[in-house]
Design brief:
The chain is α+β, with helices and mostly antiparallel strands. It has helices spanning 27-36, 53-64, 90-93, 103-110, 129-137, 172-183, 198-210, 241-253, 269-278, 326-333, 353-358, 389-401, 411-417, 421-427; strands at residues 8-12, 19-22, 43-47, 68-72, 75-79, 112-116, 140-145, 148-153, 164-166, 188-192, 213-215, 221-225, 234-236, 258-263, 281-292, 296-304, 313-314, 339-343, 363-367, 370-374, 383-385, 405-409, 431-435. It has 14 helices and 23 strands.
């Protein structure tokens, strides 16, 4: 893993892929579980944690709060016995959207929290107002001053108070913030129109194993009965469904049969359904893998590619088609026979990769939040610039399918969300190399 904005990835396309790839732990789950470890006044051990820039940044935020971290391979030991209610460092928070997750655990455990407004990929507005209103509904005083969110218990209250919270939009981040805050609140908290993503279920399972009382995760209504204290546990982070989906598209776009280990197929249902529509067959196979969330057994997936044809896609909150797979499917549909329409309904700026794909000879035009794709028989390598995390993956996938050499710039985005993507692709037979210019 590197964090070098000057590095580029050179890809020589048209290689056939084969073999097996091991899917890493879910970035979006690991980040919130790291923040959730603050709820426990002791040690928690997370396993299957991916080695990513975003994970490193979350670790820096926790250490700034006084938390002790030890990492070995994919295991992180987090000791939150002592926490300093200091402000999280702005220079790190400004680069990591998930940094805001610490506000709920800090507030519910210490009674106070100061967290700068977060950053991350420039893919559209991701306001924290739903987080703030949820905490206010539980009795917190929340204000924003000079770009810093200040949250405190009101009066002489020792704990947050349970409440009924309706989210205007099923925000994953707001659901997670409120869920964590409610674990140590007094009484019952009910979140209606809650997000239903697998990462929410993973967080609930994590909290419950620590001693919380969370029910309904994975549905649109989550109920939390507050408890006095949570205790230390060891926990396996679920596999990354977006990494798995990206490798499935790698098989499809290169017309290669490959297998993926450590996958939970249910988490990929909308992705698998669309790949089937496009002309690929996805075979689910048993494996002697890990168990997640207490009783979920991982599987192996095998993609058998076929003649690719166009389809329409609309991104939606889970269990709909994930916005985090939209860019990768845009690349795939650009070389699929016929016409496709891709509608991005989650983030307003998430079609910026289209301009880069057009440089490679695709026939895509953007109208509002829709990308109209007319499949072409061949695309050509070109210098392209990644604009966000998933766009970077889409450009790598396009490079695998293109004739000639593709040079992907802006790898700092890729390193935020994919663990060792290059070596995993090389292990499947792809021809690519990361180049770091001299003097950087």
């Amino acid at each position: 893993m590197l964090e070098d904005s000057q590095a580029v990835l050179e890809i020589w396309g048209r290689s056939s892929l084969s073999g097996n790839v091991q899917i890493s732990g879910a970035k979006n789950s690991a980040l919130v579980l790291m923040a959730g470890s603050i709820l426990c006044p002791g040690k928690c051990t997370l396993r299957n944690v991916p080695n990513l820039v975003d994970i490193k940044r979350m670790g820096q935020i926790l250490e700034a709060l006084g938390v002790k971290l030890k990492r070995q391979d994919d295991v992180i030991e987090i000791d939150a016995t002592k926490i300093n209610p200091t402000e999280a460092p702005y220079d790190v928070v400004s680069q990591l959207r998930a940094s805001f997750f610490v506000i709920g655990p800090l507030l519910t455990r210490l009674g106070t929290a100061r967290v700068p407004l977060p950053g991350g990929c420039a893919i559209g507005a991701r306001p924290v107002d739903l987080h703030v209103r949820g905490l206010q509904a539980m009795g917190a005083s929340v204000s924003i001053e000079d770009g810093v969110v200040h949250a405190n218990l009101v009066g002489n209250k020792q704990r947050l108070q349970g409440g009924k919270i309706y989210l205007d939009y099923p925000s994953v981040g707001a659901t997670e913030t409120i869920l964590m805050a409610a674990t140590l609140a007094k009484g019952e908290t009910k979140i209606e129109n809650a997000a239903q993503e697998p990462e929410i279920v993973d967080l609930a399972n994590f909290c419950n194993q620590m001693g919380a009382k969370v029910t309904g995760a994975g549905t649109n209504t989550i109920t939390i009965q507050g408890v006095q204290e949570l205790s230390s546990i060891e926990y396996n982070v679920i596999p990354d469904r977006i990494e798995a989906g990206t490798f499935l598209v790698a098989g499809a776009i290169t017309k290669s049969e490959i297998t993926l280990s450590s996958v939970i197929p249910e988490h990929l249902a909308p992705v698998i359904a669309k790949l089937n529509e496009i002309g690929c067959q996805i075979v689910i196979e048993d494996e002697a893998g890990k168990t997640f969330g207490g009783d979920i057994q991982s599987k192996r997936l095998r993609i058998v590619p076929g003649e690719l044809c166009g389809t329409d896609i609309e991104t939606l909150p889970y269990p709909g088609f994930p916005t985090d797979m939209q860019a990768q499917f845009t690349a795939l549909l650009s070389i699929s026979k016929g016409n496709s329409v891709i509608s991005e309904t989650v983030f307003e700026n998430r079609l910026r990769h289209v301009a880069e794909l057009q440089r490679m000879g695709t026939n895509i035009r953007v109208k509002g939040n829709h990308a109209i794709v007319q499949g072409v028989a061949m695309i050509s390598g070109a210098p392209v610039m990644a604009t966000d995390l998933r766009a970077s993956a889409a450009l790598v996938l396009a490079g695998l399918a293109a004739e000639g050499k593709t040079t992907v710039h802006g790898l700092q985005h890729l390193d935020r969300g994919y663990e060792d993507l290059e070596s995993k692709l090389r292990g499947l037979g792809a021809k690519l190399e990361r180049i770091i210019p001299e003097g950087t």
